[in-house]
Amino acid sequence: MVETLVMIPGLATTARLYEPQISAIGPDREIIVADHNQDDSIPAIAARLLRNAPERFALAGLSMGGYVALEILRQAPGRVERLALLDTSARPDTPEASDDRERLIALAKAGRFDDIAAKLWPRLVHPQRQSDPELRAVVVDMMRETGAESFIRQQRAIMARADSRPMLPGIEIPTLVLVGEADAITPPAIAREMAEMIEWASLVVVADAGHLANLERPDEVNRALRLWLELD
User: Fold this and answer.
1) pLDDT score of 46
2) Which helix (H) or strand (E) holds 205?
3) In a 3-state reduction of DSSP, which class is residue 95?
4) What phi and psi, each to the nearest 5 degrees, are found at residue 79?
5) Could you give the CA distance from residue 106 to residue 29 in angstroms, rounded to a whole number?
6) Cβ-count burial of 91 within 10 angstroms (0-12 exposed, 13-18 middle, 19+ buried)?
7) Which domain holds residue 225?
8) How large is the angle between the packed helices 42-52 and 64-75, nearest 10 degrees?
9) Which of 89, 111, 131, 138 is buried most, with the most CB atoms less than 10 Å from its CB?
């Protein structure tokens, strides 16, 4: 039976985040993009996904999507056949990161949601891509589609996430850990930590990419995902 691939977007992103991957993998796998907009905790997002997912599936998540993916393994480990952790972390939020999130939440509550994209953009992509108008337009459009209320719920969920490092040694399914070499939010050292703790993990560092490696370098990421799915 062909595996369904469930993909979980990151903070303030939509299914559009995975358009390059859907184009590359969709002909060979059914792909479902999870809903992560309606709940204000990582466990609740994971539970919603599990209610709507097939009994068995491959699972990929980027950034916040990776936090949810690890929670899914916590809630229903037997249902996940393989795991991809993209530009993400198993660590809990730091006090400094939570303070930054509170400031962004305050902007959203004050009706200054468009200001948030300007603050986040420099940390999302490789320095060489920061003047890319098409890529920036995709990011801004996804943020606007997400909206302030969902953004606030997502930030609250991220701040309260669990430390997933203790569960990593127990993951015994094929796992891809992928990160952009210039990821300023979840840098390669964080990815390396996860890959070293998961026995069946392979680590891929994508050159000339930042936190949104799958949009910045789609060919390289698609190749890694196809190998992980055993399509090539």
Assistant:
1) 98
2) strand 201-206
3) helix
4) -90, -15
5) 41
6) middle
7) 1-232
8) 70
9) 89
- What is the pTM (predicted TM-score) of this model? 0.97
Per-residue pLDDT of the chain (232 residues; tens, 9 = 90+): 568 999 999 999 999 999 999 999 999 999 999 999 999 999 999 999 999 999 999 999 999 999 999 999 999 999 999 999 999 999 999 999 999 999 999 999 999 988 999 999 999 999 999 999 999 999 999 999 999 999 999 999 999 999 999 999 999 999 999 999 999 999 999 999 999 999 999 999 999 999 999 999 999 999 999 999 999 7
Question: Secondary structure of 32-88 in the HEC alphabet?
Answer: EECCCCCCCCHHHHHHHHHHHCCCCEEEEEECHHHHHHHHHHHHCHHHEEEEEEECC
CATH (domain of 160): 3.40.50.1820
Q: Which of 2, 10, 54, 6 is nearest to 150 (CA)?
A: 10
Q: Is the alpha carbon torsion for 214, 219, 221, 227 positive or negative?
A: positive
Residue among 51, 55, 50, 58 nearest 29 (CA)? 58
Q: Domain total for the chain?
A: 1
Determine the Cα–Cα distance for residues 208 and 21; give it in Å rounded to an integer.
18
Output b/e per residue, 20-52; b: 16+ Cβ within 10 A. Answer: bbbebbeeebebbbbebbebeebbbbbebbbee
Classify residue 63 by burial, with Cβ atoms within 10 Å: 0-12, 13-18, 19+.
buried
The Cα–Cα gap between 188 and 204 comes to: 9
Helix or strand holding residue 202 (H, E): strand 201-206
